[in-house]
Amino acid sequence: MKCKAKFSAIVLAVLALTSAPGMAQEQPAEHQVSYNASITSDYRYRGLSQTALDPALQGGVDYVHGPTGFYVGTWLSTIKWTKDLGGDGNIEWDVYGGKRGQLTEAVSYDVGGLYYYYPDNGLNPSANTFELYGKLGFGPAYIKYSHSTTNLFGTADSKQSGYLDVGADIDVSNGFILNLHVGRQKLKNNSMYSYTDYKVGVTKDFGVATVALAWHKANTDAYLSPEGKNLGKSAAVLSVSKTF
Q: 0.85 exceeded by the pTM?
């Protein structure tokens, strides 16, 4: 309950800060700060539900140093899977940082590190995970690779696991963005938990909020909730978000 209270307080603080008139304009041009909040019908990550197919509340803050492309940020979401595995906690708290920019006019890059922190998760090995990542962008298309330097999300003997993400976000018409993705999660020394996931969706920014509807699927039945739900089952996910 303490984690839920802290998370709710953070989200309310973010919304209160972003409602202050002219806040964004007060930031120096080279220092860019943004806030985000969202609600989703199912928190899917790499094709797997983190909330046993239930909704999630999410929010975060990002800082970018414009001239250099260096950035840091933090993001939180409600989850259920740590309790489902016999541990505790109901919050995922991500902290990340890196650098992005252009290699050429047509090719962008993004490199950095991401720490997934699960307060009081109580799992052994711990659910806490650190990954390094690198991404190349080619117009609307991208390819990204993430590599764990710790055990991956509580799986024993899984250091050096990798996730390959290939996709595209294509502006099709009138601000509607077609989201395409295929990913491959490979767990070191745990091949039965390796899998491929897919996503096809559409996103539209309506000004007051951004709405996203996507179909997700992971081709594995190795990830089940205590009730026997397949956490990678084919499903549509609806999300509503706002960035300030």
A: yes
